[in-house]
Design brief:
- With about 70 residues, the protein is mainly alpha-helical.
- The protein is built from 5 helices and no strands.
Length: about 70
C-alpha cells in the first residue's frame, strides 16, 4: 500500500515539474495571466472583466436622468 502511494506521489511530482518547465527553469518564466481583461481572445470578443463593466455602468447616465435634465424640472 505504501509503495503505491509513493509511486503516485513521484508520478505527480514529475507531472507538475514537466508542466511548469518554462516557469521553473527560465529567467523570464511566469505563470500565464488568468485575468479576463488581459486575455487576447476575450478582448477580441469584446468581453471585459466584471470590475470594468461595473465601473462603466456607474459612469453612464441613466435615461431617466437625461429626460429630467432635458425637461428642466
Amino acid at each position: 500500500m505504501i509503495k503505491i502511494v509513493l509511486i503516485g506521489i513521484v508520478i505527480l511530482f514529475i507531472a507538475i515539474l514537466l508542466m511548469g518547465m518554462k516557469v521553473f527553469f527560465s529567467r523570464k518564466g511566469s505563470f500565464p495571466s488568468l485575468h479576463i481583461g488581459e486575455c487576447q481572445a476575450m478582448q477580441e470578443r469584446g468581453i471585459t472583466c466584471a470590475t470594468s463593466q461595473d465601473a462603466e455602468m456607474h459612469r453612464r447616465e441613466s435615461p431617466i436622468e437625461k429626460m429630467l435634465k432635458s425637461q428642466n424640472l
